[in-house]
């Protein structure tokens, strides 16, 4: 018998109808690690039953070989205890089409394979260079049109463009064949439970929202740190860098949820309207201000978890004279009534001392200090939202140390998702795939969100290009370049410890 009252109401009630899901680039890593496991989890829970999964890729596989690969994907520790019969029932729903992405015949086969399914979902899990050919060919065979009572939707993976111009071009191409309500631009960070909980924390509790403004908040820090280097993704990372890879999408989406105004309701467009307002209120960084408000870094050889890690320039696929940033830090301002004057510090990097994703809301000190204690003993009140490695929330307040004096020190009040709700929270892709199946685009990004975020990021990229100074270096396994401290220079603020 389950005695945890917080587990009540976790049952999933949304059930999609029959659908065919097409995965372009089905032989890739994302299918293996996220898509097939996510779909299988939905199948095990009885949420999906009438469906077909069609892999579409260049490799000369057959239905049988794709199904065999599917068996390997499900033979992980996560699904080891699942009866083989259930696994096989799922595997039999896998089909495969071997074709180039610009081959007309493959798309004709695809339309035939989807016959009988009123719901059609096309998932673009390929390198972005392939997107134009896939979109055009889907358009030519009429894939955007759907049977009466059905639907046709397209999910587009990041990166969605490399700058504002390419993002606009991709949006324009999609809009030739698909309407905006058919386009699902996925950002898996929005599928994480703690990220989704930000709105509940803010708008579902009376104690926080009155304090959520420039009168009470000193600054905000958002950190997304990884201990690993780029590994086998050197070719991709050379074209991306930390700013494009993490800040433009994941971090800016998280920032929007932290700082947006309350929506009028929870409809997708009401929420996304408020996020767009935040992005359009970001104070532009001019070319001359880039050095003042941004820091770039690149890791050199070091040790992570007691294992030697090569420097970025020594990684496979990386140019020996590369200026690509593996560390980026920004100082951002939102010029609106709520956030005027509050600095928001963002950092994202690879090759740091540990993996950590969090947002820290740091509150202002009391206007007058009545406790006779050293300033360094009295901590700032802070609310920290943990995304990785553990999901949860920590609220830090000051409390009296037991004894005969009024010495004060910070103490933490912790909420951990795992302890409160058990292991029932779905993986990000599982949640996002289901949302697309039932037509809920709340956790997907809209056209104007993409373009507003790229407007801000492109200015920084252009500033870096205008002054091609090499990035600062930092040793792998460290906390990043010392130069990142300049963003907080002249204040008592400090980056949070990793």
Description:
This protein has 498 residues and is α/β, with parallel strands linked by helices. The two termini are 39 Å apart. Helix 8 (234-259) packs across helix 13 (447-466). The strands form 3 sheets. A 9-stranded mixed beta sheet has the order 16-15-14-13-7-12-11-8-17. The chain has a 6-stranded parallel beta sheet with strand order 3-2-1-4-5-6. The chain has helices at 29-44, 63-74, 84-91, 104-113, 131-140, 164-177, 193-203, 234-259, 268-281, 290-293, 417-421, 428-437, 447-466, and strands at residues 19-24, 51-57, 94-98, 119-124, 151-156, 183-185, 217-225, 294-300, 302-304, 307-309, 327-332, 344-349, 356-363, 382-388, 392-400, 408-416, 472-475. A hairpin with a 7-residue loop joins strand 15 (392-400) and strand 16 (408-416). The model is unreliable at 1-12 (pLDDT under 50). The chain folds into 2 domains: 15-157, 3-Layer(aba) Sandwich (Rossmann fold), CATH 3.40.50; 190-438 and 446-488, Dihydrodipicolinate Reductase, domain 2. The protein contains 13 helices and 17 strands. It is globular and about 75 Å long. The longest helix is centred in the middle third of the chain and has 26 residues, at 234-259.
């Amino acid at each position: 018998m389950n005695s945890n009252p917080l587990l009540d109401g976790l049952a999933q009630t949304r059930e999609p109808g029959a659908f065919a899901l097409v995965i372009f680039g089905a032989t890739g890593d994302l299918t293996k690690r996220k898509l097939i496991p996510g779909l299988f989890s939905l199948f095990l829970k009885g949420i999906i039953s009438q469906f077909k999964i069609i892999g579409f890729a260049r490799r000369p596989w057959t239905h049988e070989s794709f199904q065999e690969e599917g068996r390997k994907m499900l033979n992980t520790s996560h699904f080891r205890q699942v009866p083989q019969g259930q696994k096989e029932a799922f595997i039999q729903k896998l089909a495969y089409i071997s074709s180039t992405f610009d081959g007309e015949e493959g798309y004709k086969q695809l339309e035939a394979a989807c016959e009988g399914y009123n719901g059609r979902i096309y998932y673009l899990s390929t390198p972005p260079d392939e997107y134009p050919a896939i979109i055009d060919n889907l358009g030519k065979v009429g894939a955007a049109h759907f049977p009466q009572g059905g639907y046709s939707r397209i999910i587009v993976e990041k990166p969605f463009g490399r700058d504002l111009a390419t993002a606009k071009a991709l949006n324009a191409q999609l809009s030739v064949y698909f309407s905006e309500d058919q386009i699902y631009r996925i950002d898996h960070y929005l599928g994480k439970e703690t990220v989704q909980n930000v709105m509940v924390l803010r708008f579902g509790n009376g104690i926080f929202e009155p304090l959520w403004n420039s009168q009470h908040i000193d600054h905000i820090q958002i950190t997304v740190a990884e201990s690993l280097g780029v590994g086998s993704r050197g070719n991709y990372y050379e074209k991306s860098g930390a700013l494009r890879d993490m800040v433009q999408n994941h971090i800016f989406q998280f920032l929007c949820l932290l700082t947006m105004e309350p929506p009028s309701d929870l409809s997708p467009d009401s929420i996304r309207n408020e996020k767009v307002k935040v992005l359009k209120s970001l104070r532009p960084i001019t070319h001359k201000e880039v050095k003042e408000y941004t820091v770039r870094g690149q890791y050199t050889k070091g040790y992570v978890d007691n294992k030697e890690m090569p420097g970025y320039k020594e990684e496979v696929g990386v140019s020996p004279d590369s200026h690509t940033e593996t560390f980026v830090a920004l100082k951002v301002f939102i010029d609106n009534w709520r956030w005027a004057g509050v600095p928001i510090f963002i950092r994202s990097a690879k090759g740091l001392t540990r993996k950590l994703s969090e947002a820290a809301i740091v509150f202002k000190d009391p206007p007058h200090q009545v406790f006779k204690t050293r300033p360094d003993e009295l901590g700032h009140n802070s609310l920290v939202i943990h995304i990785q490695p553990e999901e949860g929330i920590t609220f830090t307040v000051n409390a009296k140390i037991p004894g005969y004096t009024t010495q004060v020190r910070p103490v933490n009040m912790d909420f951990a998702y795992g302890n409160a709700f058990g292991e029932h929270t779905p993986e990000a892709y599982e949640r996002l795939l289901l949302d697309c199946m039932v037509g809920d685009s709340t956790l997907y990004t809209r056209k104007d969100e993409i373009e507003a975020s790229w407007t801000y990021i492109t200015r920084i990229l252009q500033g870096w290009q205008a002054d091609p100074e090499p990035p600062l270096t930092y040793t792998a396994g460290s906390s990043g370049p010392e130069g990142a401290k300049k963003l907080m220079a002249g204040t008592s603020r400090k980056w949070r410890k990793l």
